[in-house]
Structures are given as C-alpha cells and as structure tokens.
Specification:
The protein folds into 2 domains: 2-159, Rossmann fold; 165-327, Lipocalin (Beta Barrel). Helices cover 34% and strands 32% of the residues. The protein has helices at 10-26, 44-53, 70-82, 102-105, 114-127, 136-157, 167-173, 300-307, 313-327, and strands spanning 2-6, 31-34, 57-62, 88-92, 110-111, 176-183, 191-198, 205-212, 218-230, 237-246, 249-264, 270-281, 289-297. The termini are far apart.
Length: 328
C-alpha cells in the first residue's frame, strides 16, 4: 500500500522523515512517500499530484508553531479522495486538539504518546489487504522501535522552525501568558498580565489583560476588539484595538490602538517584544496618553500561578508585585 506523508515546516519535515523510517519497520508493507523525494528535472506539482492520486492512506504531521498549513488541508482532501474515504491519520506532535483545523479533527487525532501510536500502528495493519494484521511480532517490533522514533521526534521539535514567519505559525508561537511593562507619566498601572489565545481555526487571536499597580493591587481589565498580524517580517508586528476600564475610574471606558514588534530568536522562539499604545477615554473629554511597553514571555511557573484554579488572588498579586519590582 502507498502512504503519503504530509508536512509543512522544517520541524515537520524532520518528523516526516522519522515517521517514514518508523513505518518501514513496524508495517513494512506500507510504501511511504515524503515530498523531498520528488525526482529532479520533472515538474514538482505534476509529480506531487501523482503521488497524492496513488495514495492509499495519508499521514498529516502537525507540530508547533503552525498546527497545520492551508496546503496540508489541500493534501488531506486529495488523499481522502484517492483513498476512497479512508486511511487519513492526522498526527499531533505537542499541539493542542483545538489548534488543529476543524476538517482534520473528525479523523480521530493521534497524539504523540506510545499508547496512541500503538493504536495507530494497529489501525494501519488492519488496512493491509495481504497482511495478518496486528501480530505478536508486530507488537515486539513496535516496542523496540518506539524509543528511537520518540527520540527523533523530540529532537526535531527542539529545532528552529521557519513556520513562525507565517501568520498561523506566529499566532501559535506567541500563544500563552505574557508580562507587559508599561511606562506612563500619569497612569498608575505599571504592569499587565496578558493572555494570547488563538482562535479555533488558528488564523487570528484574542488578547485579554489585567493591570496591576504598585503592591500588586488590581488596577484595570481590558480585551482586544480587533487584531492584525504582519508575520512575514523579520520582526513580526502585532496591532490591535482594545477596550477596558480602570478600577479607580470604573464609569469611564478607555480604549486605543497598540502596536507591538516581537523579536524572533536564533532558535525560532519568541520571548520578548516592545511597542506603544494610546490610552484614550471613550466617553469623556480627557487627553489621550501615549504609553511605552515592553513584553516578556511568562515562565511555566508564573503561568501556573496566574491561571491555576488552586492559586489565590493573594498569590497572583504577590507575583505581580515581585515582577514589577524586578523590572524597574
């Protein structure tokens, strides 16, 4: 049987190659194809279309930061059609289910665990027309091959990835918790806790923020209204419109536009940014204020304190106060 292995970025390509080797060991009856194997000197699209048409099953390698590219969805549709409505396996390597585009979620996602990949190997073996299915020999082969495959995938996931320069990749790369340091002459809010949440389809995001002043006291709350991403630049730019209220002026609605420029490190991660925004009162004649900001990605420990259900408000305020003092 012929299998088409789909990938999108540099990390997924390394994973796709490891998957091809793993399949050759566990289910050697499957002949896998990865697109870099296209023959030189021939039109790439025609060759790729032929491989898609001849596929009996397809494996979609999905990994951060992009989740899945638009082209992978095209390949998935082509494989699904060629395979007669069966044998499409989306493989999730350290990405959340909600980060997988909706069309692929219907195919019982395979997550990067030993148990789930054993189930995958069993499912593939049952699709083989001239094979005995899942045997003790296959089971032993799987157990011997899994540690090497696991190591290859984990190594690939640590490599820099070019997907962060795509809109979908950038959105997933900045997802999660951030600290925002604010410099302003008049406002008492000096620090914000920000949470970047990708949309279900991974093409946009929302941002919510909680402002803290000295001593870790709660000062404001806001959320985005519209987000724009320019991810193709060497240093991606995020622009958004926001609205919110200050605790000391709860009857007034504030808003404005914010621009943040992020820095992509040599290993492909995004951990800091800087920019400015205008704080404008929406329902009173108050002069606008321009504020400078700097962003730092929160650590896993900080995220646990700020988002954990078992953490108290006192713990969050103490962390905000400590973070603010360390940033002055």
């Amino acid at each position: 049987m012929n299998a088409f292995i789909s990938w999108s970025g540099s990390r997924e390509l390394l994973i796709a190659k490891a998957l091809k080797e793993w399949l050759a060991v566990v289910v050697p009856e499957v002949q896998s194809f990865v697109s870099p194997e296209l023959q030189k000197g021939k039109p790439w699209f025609a060759e790729l279309a032929k491989e898609l048409k001849d596929a009996d099953m397809g494996f979609m390698c999905l990994a951060p930061p992009r989740g899945a590219s638009e082209w992978q969805l095209v390949e998935a549709g082509a494989v699904w059609k060629a395979a007669g409505g069966g044998g499409l396996f989306p493989l999730c390597f350290h990405i959340r289910e909600r980060d997988v585009p909706e069309p692929l979620r219907a195919f019982q996602l395979t997550h990067f665990t030993e148990d789930d990949f054993r189930r995958l190997a069993k499912s593939v073996s049952t699709l083989l027309a001239r094979a005995p299915g899942w045997t003790r020999t296959r089971q032993r082969t799987f157990e011997k091959s899994w540690p090497l495959f696991k190591k290859q995938v984990e190594t690939a996931l640590r490599q820099p990835d070019n997907g962060v320069h795509t809109t979908r990749g950038f959105i997933h790369a900045v997802a999660g918790g951030w600290w925002e340091r604010v410099w302003s002459e008049r406002d008492t809010t000096k620090l914000s806790w920000m949470w970047f949440e990708p949309s279900d389809d991974g093409t946009s995001q929302t941002i919510t923020g909680h402002g803290f002043s000295k001593g870790g006291s709660f000062a404001s709350q806001w959320e985005t209204i519209l987000v724009s991403v320019q991810a193709h630049l060497p240093e991606p730019i995020l622009e958004y419109y926001w609205e919110g209220r200050h605790t000391h002026k709860p009857n007034l609605l504030f808003g404005g536009k914010c621009t943040i420029q992020f820095c992509i490190s040599a290993n492909g991660t995004i951990d800091e940014g800087s920019g400015e925004f205008k704080d404008v009162c929406m329902n009173a004649a108050l002069p606008p204020t321009t504020k400078l900001i700097a962003l730092q990605r929160a650590t896993p420990e900080e995220i646990a304190i700020m988002t954990g259900k078992n953490r108290t408000l006192r713990a969050r305020r103490a962390l905000a106060d400590k973070k603010l003092k360390g940033w002055l």
